[in-house]
Amino acid sequence: MIEFSYSEPDSLVELLEMLEEGGNTAALLAGGTDLVNHIRIGKRTPNKVISLKSVRELNHELTFCQDGITIGALTTLSAIEKHSVVREMFPALAEAVNKIGSTQIRNKGTLVGNLCNASPAADAIPALLIYNAVIHIVSKKDRRTVPVEAFMKGPGKTDLQQGEIVESIFVPTPPANSGSCYLKSSRRDGADLTIVGAAALVALSGEVRIGLGAVAPVPFRAHAAEKMARDEPVNLDAALDEAVKQANPISDLRASREYRLAMIKTFTRKAIHICRERIQK
Amino acid sequence: MSTDLIEIHFSLNGERKTIEVKPYHTLAQVLRDQLDLTGTKLCCEEGECGACTVILNEKAVTSCIVLAPEINGCELKTIEGLVQDGELDPVQEAFIEKGAVQCGYCIPGMIMSAKALLQENNDPCEADIREALAGNLCRCAGYYRIIDAVTSAGKQIREANAAKS
Ligand code: FES
Ligand code: FES
Q1: The last residue of a domain, from among B40, B56, B80
Q2: Whether residue B75 is found in the same domain as residue B95
Q3: Which segments of the protein form a coiled coil according to its record (chain B) (predicted)?
């Protein structure tokens, strides 16, 4: 591995100062499950690694209020998937997070880190999309919020500018009388990358939300399909064709483009059925 | 840029330790090359195979993707720390008894993952065990006996607890 320095600032001010100073030779370390690998394979070559671990303003915990939950920059994936409020109120998020990596990875990795790496196949992002999650960003000068839909810009690319960090993710409470779920297609059950990831939310009011991952350069909301599924619930098949039109998957060693396109319909349909069952409960 | 040694303090298998580490070394490297604790194995070195699993603050993690300075202030347990007063841990006993060990290379990692699971839940169902061990690969493919061993270790632990109370 290349040589780099390591620092552990203990306040946000100090962190943002270091980040500005380091410019693009600095790398932020949260869980490190991606960063350390990226450094090892030479995908990233920082000369300074800045750990977020001791920054007192950044949260390891998950906090909730009536309006929703806030996931801190240091909240691990394990903490999220095991949280009773997440399991009960945000089942698609709990299910998606549970599909990321292995237990060891989830014990160390953070959701914010996962989001910032902006993998097209990231499991949690379709779930964040259907819950209309909002990203809180902070820099030395400013604070701003961006809907998760606008945060992802391309494979490995986000809306984060030089000197900015993600402070937290806010996930609003889903509509009353709704059900949600996340399904993942992969070659094996544990610790495998996603072929198609489908998150859905269905409300008694008729509202339908669909978030898809691993079938385009960034996970996306299938708005046209959602509208059709709401207006003509009996014609789900035609609605799902709209979702397929919006996708542009690649072929890789995990699956061909054609297989992915076919699986969008299968998995989204299944996810919507599960959502409907969940409303009843 | 200063790549000088960093002093870290942590608890290693119940003992306090202060050592100096390179900022760009991984925990696995430090354990094996600096502290001579070679029970922790290295294989893929990318967090995929689980051979290097240790228990950090009560949670199983793969030490090949933890940076050494990160463990400052943490509590660390490695396979070497499982023996208590010369007695093997119930998880180790169960692996031997169930014949779960073939070449043995994956076993320290398997045992640490199993140990972390049983600390949290000493009555796991098979699905819990499979999930906890999904990040540990055994290329001798002795998975069934490994699952048997973890089930049996859980039972031993519950019986021992019941006998105590
Ligand atoms: S050597 Fe660490 S996970 Fe394989
Ligand atoms: S016993 Fe040989 S790799 Fe598991």
Answers
A1: B80
A2: no
A3: none
